[in-house]
Amino acid sequence: MKRTIIMMLDSFGVGAATDAESFGDVGSDTFGSIAKACAEGRADIGREGPLKLPNLAKLGLALAAKESTGAFAPGFSDNVEVIGAYGHADELSTGKDTPSGHWEMAGVPVLYEWGYFSDLTNSFPKELTDKILARAGLDGYLGNCHASGTTILEELGEEHMRTGQPIFYTSADSVFQIACHEESFGLENLYNLCIIAREELADYNIGRVIARAFVGTGPSDFARTGNRRDYAVEPPAKTVLDKMKEAGGEVISVGKIADIYAHCGITQKVKATGLEALFDATLEQVKLAGDKTIVFTNFVDFDSHYGHRRDIAGYAKALEYFDSRLPEMLELLSEDDLLILTADHGCDPSWKGSDHTRERVPVLAYGGGLAAGSLGRRNSFADIGQSIASYFKLEPMEYGESFIK
Ligand SMILES: O=P(O)(O)O[C@H]1O[C@H](CO)[C@@H](O)[C@H]1O
Ligand SMILES: [Mn+2]
Ligand SMILES: [Mn+2]
């Protein structure tokens, strides 16, 4: 039975990318910074001491990171028997955003420039927001700036509830984000507003409109819910997921994968919110999956709950939880199955600001006939897509070099 399971740890970078300088991210290192803080006793909230990731280390994480940065992350060494193939990859795509990272790992790098709203305040052209408001029948909006999605709720959430005006904000990514209260504004109204915005943004080359639904009564208890929805544009070419689907295979999206690929190349969607539920759903799908199947999960919490929130201890605890459950996954795999663990960009929780960091990502591959050992530095995340194409004997991708014969 041939199946590929992709566990995509959103934002789990392993050190600054070769081109990090052009992003102002030289020295960023998501994994390394978390390990360092843990080793120094600076991440003892809800957990304690050095970062413990024995199962990820067995799959080669520590060595992959060492080959990326030149030194072992604090608390890690080569004193472990590695059972998988491990490498680290630079990104070819121009942006350090989620769609770019995901599409590239599926064999389609984004070589064009996205549109960005780069002004930190007054970020959106009036012409654009006027059209969106008119079509939605709204008399105004709040925000109009770069912001952290949780901070802006504390600042504007109450005013939004009082006035009924949606909160529009953006970030260093190519995004137009709309935060609205699920009850006072209404979830369907939020989704409809996002669809209008998606249409009006056609000429702006913006990667995603994101619905940010939240609940609560005031700044102290406002909380975003699992009803986030991403409206992405379609990838510029067929990804390995499209090719798999066309070849009659199954492509099962767990979590927000389907949204990120604009539902292209997906045969089944499974929703789950939170690390535990996402892990449970992934195991469940692997149990059910037959031959010629890709099970692809995005573990978004690493990024959205901890990376963007610059919460080092939270990130460490989440990694340790993920690691503790890996044996359950390994147990489900048959000899032929291929397990890939990777990331889409960095989001170093020790870094300035609240945006992603341009980093290399780990490429941990286990099974599929691969010998344990180093895959070295890969020039593109597309090596993953190319390897999956060759594993399932699909037509080769235009980009990427396969590490599977
Ligand atoms: O601060 P929050 O709302 O989590 O937003 C973050 O999440 C977006 C999508 O990943 C990024 O562009 C960044 O702005
Ligand atoms: Mn991401
Ligand atoms: Mn993010």
TrEMBL record:
The gene is deoB. GO terms for biological process: 2-deoxyribose 1-phosphate catabolic process; 5-phosphoribose 1-diphosphate biosynthetic process; metabolic compound salvage; nucleotide metabolic process. It comes from Shewanella hanedai. GO terms for molecular function: magnesium ion binding; manganese ion binding; phosphopentomutase activity. It is found in: Cytoplasm. This is Phosphopentomutase. Pathway: Carbohydrate degradation; 2-deoxy-D-ribose 1-phosphate degradation; D-glyceraldehyde 3-phosphate and acetaldehyde from 2-deoxy-alpha-D-ribose 1-phosphate: step 1/2. The lineage of its organism: Bacteria, Pseudomonadati, Pseudomonadota, Gammaproteobacteria, Alteromonadales. Mn(2+) 1 binds at D10, D344, H345. One of its GO terms (cellular component) is cytosol.
